[in-house]
Amino acid sequence: MIKLDNDGYIRLHASDFREIRMVHLVSGLAEDTEEEAAGSGGSASKINGYTEWVSTCTPVISLGWDWRLNVSIKPPVLLRENSPSSNVMLLDTFGRDVGTHKTAILLESVVDELMWQSTVLAAITRRYA
């Protein structure tokens, strides 16, 4: 059984976290900042955005990350940028917090193992078409 602690974290072991089913909640395109939009001439445009996924269990685990469209390869692909954000804190074998840095590293590997790209691309297409 997982539970929400008073500090907002859901604490669990990495092996337990990997067993939790995550489903897509929302994805969107990032807005260009004024500085980026003010570019002149033939500058390359960036397509990037965000996505948020949630668990099917209670309490709900939230896992979100930014992505960018890499057009330098064919076919273009979505790539995760930066570490995901989450309300998860992973525990070591003694039940102690491993810390935000080690938790972030594992969350990166979890996201990279998910087959999220096609789901996000479909959501973006529906939302902005």
At the first level of CATH, the class is Alpha Beta
Q: Briefly note the structural class of the backbone.
A: alpha+beta
Describe the largest sheet. 4 strands, antiparallel
Please count the helical segments: 4
Output the helix-strand order: EHEHEEEEHH
Q: What share of residues is helical?
A: 25-40%
- What is the average per-residue confidence, as pLDDT, rounded to a whole number? 90
Output the radius of gyration. 17 Å
Per CATH, what is the topology? Nuclear Transport Factor 2, Chain: A
Shape: elongated
Uncertain residue segments: none
What distance separates the N and C termini? 41 Å
What is the CATH-assigned architecture?
Answer: Roll
Q: Strand sequence of the main sheet, in spatial order?
A: 2-3-4-5
Number of domains: 1
